[in-house]
Amino acid sequence: MKKEVQEFLKSDMLQRYVIGDLSSRESMAVEQFIGTYEEVAEAYEKLQDNLEVLANFEAVNPPKDLFAKIESQLDDSKVISLKRRSSRMTWISVAASVSALIFAVTSVLLYQQNRQLNSENNVVVEEIFDLRQDIENNNNKLNQLAEELSKLNDPDSKKYVLTGNERAKNLKTVAYINPVEKTSMIDVITLPQLPEEQYYQMWAEFQDKMVNIGVLDASERKLRPIPYMENAVALSITIENKNGESKSEDNQVAEISLKNNK
Questions:
Q1: In the chain, what are the domains?
Q2: Which of 82, 172, 210, 251 could bridge across to 189 with cysteines, CB 3.0–4.6 Å?
Q3: Exposed (0-12), middle (13-18) or buried (19+): which is 223, by Cβ within 10 Å?
């Protein structure tokens, strides 16, 4: 393998290309590598397959409607009744009364308009804050996605598919174990429904014991880390009773050896 191909595969350019985190110029460079080198094309296909595993990540909720209608309430203006004055009122008094009325009406309208603008400004500030929070949350999820994708694409990462026996025919769970980085991850694909008093338990099997490494829950259908178990010889899944009366070795519904893939 050429040195430039090795350096390219060791970088994160391919992962960033898949999730759309590159500039146009960088994307063109990656596409040239994919079209030129078979090793890069194979790595790209593997990334595409791994993206399907990550498809069950939580969807990002859209931001609140920035253009939501603002309901404003205006104070009722008091109606002032004016008694007719005698015809002897001079035109100066009439003009003064009209001016005072215009001033009062204008003041009320300006006050109401100012209140509405202040309310709108407060809503806009809140929406901007929410948008910033959404952007930050989306960036965090994008970084997490890139990190998980990098772990799945690591050549040292091994994939183990656990399928159910006759007691749980539709059960399917995938484990990803990296003995070099000493990390383990689990992806729950399907879990047949159990009675309320039972649950699925995952185990790491050793020569002389079984170690509990977590409960499997159908509601948590996303890639998540599990404890890494050094020198484990197999992984298994059992059905347990919440009252603790069952024996794990008698309730096994899935098992896979770790020896052949090391």
A1: 3-56 (no CATH), 61-153 (no CATH), 158-257 (2.60.40)
A2: 172
A3: buried
